[in-house]
Amino acid sequence: MLVVLDTNILVSALLSPFGPPARVLDMVLSGDIRAAYDDRLMAEYREVLARPKFSFAPEDVATVLAYLASDGEQVMAQPLSCELPDPDDLPFLEVATQAEAVLITGNTAHYPEAVRGEVQVVAPGEFFRARQR
Question: 56, 101, 114, 121: which could join 2 in a potential S-S bond, CB 3.0 to 4.6 Å?
Fold first, then answer.
């Protein structure tokens, strides 16, 4: 199964290793699911995870991103002609659309049903619970 991880999932997973976002990241790192990405997503991951306010160890960030790049699926997403509440979220929806992936985010309201198309957008807890059934 392919998923697209919103940046807030990676931040939350690294901040709190026992919550639903961390469990989703564990599923990616164990190979149970694969993450789809493009250059824009990787650039955002790098920029956000390097912010001093998080104090993430650079080697931990590098390890996670290297795994995503090597074992994930890089896609060339096509532009979508829709508007989201936060335009910075559009690349995540574009990648999920192109990859036919589930978009996992802590901000499901940022992806209104009217513009999602066929993309399933779920919160990390919902995704994790559904996978446990």
Answer: 101
Going from the C-alpha of 21 to that of each of 9, 17, 47, 80, 127, the distances in angstroms are 5, 8, 19, 27, 10
> What sign does the dihedral 68-54-20-93 (CA atoms) show?
negative
pTM of the model: 0.96
Residues in the chain, pLDDT under 50: none
Nearest to 37 by CA among 81, 7, 13, 8: 7
At 133 the pLDDT is 74
Token pair of 53, please?
């306010």
Burial code of 1-29, b = ≥16 C-beta within 10 A, e = fewer?
A: ebbbbbbbbbbbbbeeeeebbbbbbebbb
83 backbone dihedrals φ, ψ, rounded to 5°: -115, 135
At residue 129, the pLDDT reads: 87
